[in-house]
Amino acid sequence: MFRIAHFLLLATCIAVFACGGGQEVRFLSMGTAPPGGAFFVVGGAIARVFNENTSGFSMTAEATSGSQENIRRLTSGELDFALSNSAITYFAVRGTEGWTQAYPMRAVMTLAPNVAMFVVAADSAVESIPDLAGSRVSVGPAGAGFEYFIRPLLAAHGVTYDDFSPINATQAGAVDLLTDGSVVAAFLGGAVPTASITQAAAVLDIRLVPYGPAAMQQLITEYVFFNPATIPAATYRGIDTDYKGLDVGSMHLITSADVNEELVYEATKTLYENREAVVSQHPAGRAINASNVVRDTGTEFHPGAVRFYREIGIWPQ
What we know:
Largest sheet: 5 strands, mixed
Number of domains: 2
Strand order of the largest sheet: 2-1-3-12-4
Order of helices and strands: HEHEHEHEEEHEHEHEHEEEHHH
C-alpha cells in the first residue's frame, strides 16, 4: 500500500478536485539525515528529480537524525523511502548488533560510496587510529548509527570506544568542534566530495588519518559492505595526494518490504532514467549507473526495483 497519511491524502485530493485539477496527488516522504552531510543534499536532489519527472506524486525530503531513525520510521509507515548507510541496514535486517528485531527493509538502489575517515588538524599528533587513545573524538550524531561501522573498523585496529572519549555531534557540528579544538579528531564522510570535509578544509589545515593496510583487508573480507575507496588528490584543500580509504557502507535508497511494487518500480525507473539530473545537483548522482545500482550490500532488493532492472537487462542473473 502507499504509506501516506490517509487524512492528509483525502484533504489534498478534495482540494485538487475542487480546484479543477482532476488528478489525485499522492504525498510521499523520504528520510535523509541532518544538514552537513551528503545524505541531506542527495536526498533533496532525488526528491526534486522525482517530482519533476512524474505526475500525481509529491515527494518531500525530510531532515532526520539519519539511518537508524529512517529504518524505524519506514517500518512504522511514517516514511515511504529513505537513504541509509548500507552497513546500518545490513545489521537492521538481521536484527543483530543492538537491533532488537529484524527490520523488513528492502534496497531500491545502491548509491554512492560512503567514504569516511577520522579527520584531524594538520599539526595533530594523531598519525594512526590507535593514536586516538585518550582523546576526545567526534563519532557522529546520536542515534544516527555511525557505531555500526565505526566499531568494526576500530576493532580491526585494536581500539574500542572505551579507549577514547566519544562525542556525539552532527557532521557540521563536528567541524566546529574540530576547528575550536574541542575534539582531537572527527569521523567525517559520505559521498565524495563531502560538504563537512570541504568545510573543515576551508577553515583549518587538515589531515585524513589512514587506515592500516592489514585492518582494511580484514574488514573487506569479513563484511560485504566494506570496500576499498580512493579520494583523488586535491578533492579537499591541502590534501595533495590520493587517499586510500574505505567505503564504510555505501549510501543506498531503501524502502519497506510491504511498500507497493508499482510505486517502487516507478520510483526506480524515474530516478534511473533521469540520473543526469541528479548528477547536476550532486556528484554522487554518478553512482546511479548500471554496474553500481544493483551492487549487493547485504540487503535484499525490493521486487519493484528488481523488475525494472530485469527489464533493462542489468540485474545479475
